[in-house]
Design goal:
The protein is an alpha+beta fold. It has six helices and ten strands, in the order H-E-E-H-E-E-E-E-H-E-E-H-H-E-H-E. Strands 1-6-3-9 form a four-stranded mixed β-sheet.
Length: 169
């Protein structure tokens, strides 16, 4: 449904909003335009895309995480938002047997990649196929640097209150 809606957009800007969230103001329009300067390094979108800070994480379970962008709201140029969501379905989690016959998933013994990491990386791989993480807490220096530069050059991250996002309880 998100993809179908984004493909039908005929306005200069588009929003992908989860159905369990709602808008309380139109502050998001001004915030998205507030940071026009960007570096060219790892810059993929025509303009920055506005996302919510809630679940856009730098840490999870006390450990660093990369490429963990919230899926609550995306606001920006229609082609940018469409490119984020025009991605293949994520495959079901695959298990394999280890030498002792126990079922293991990719990344064991670490936590598997989070679904928001998988969504974001799937979109980014259209621009740079080398971007990847080994597991949810892959915090190698090059991974963290790439994640941070991509955030800085492609996103505006704002609080729910700042952008006017309401959450259903």
């Amino acid at each position: 449904s998100s993809l179908g809606g984004l493909k039908a957009v005929a306005t200069p800007y588009a929003m992908k909003l989860r159905t369990d969230n709602f808008l309380t103001s139109d502050n998001f329009k001004e915030i998205q335009q507030h940071y026009p300067k960007r570096s060219n390094e790892l810059r993929f979108f025509n303009e920055r895309v506005l996302v919510c800070d809630l679940f856009t994480r730098l840490y999870n379970q006390g450990k660093k995480v990369a490429f963990h962008v919230s899926d609550f709201v995306y606001f920006g140029r229609p082609d940018d938002v469409l490119n984020i969501w025009d991605i293949p379905y994520i495959d079901d989690l695959q298990y394999r047997e280890d030498q002792q016959g126990l079922e293991q998933y990719e990344g064991m013994p670490f936590y598997r990649k989070d679904c928001t990491q998988l969504l974001w990386l799937s979109a980014l791989n259209k621009y740079d196929s080398s971007l990847n993480i080994l597991h949810q807490h892959d915090s190698r220096a090059l991974v963290m640097q790439a994640s941070n530069k991509i955030y800085a050059n492609n996103l505006v991250v704002a609080s729910c209150e700042e952008l006017g996002l309401g959450l259903c309880s």
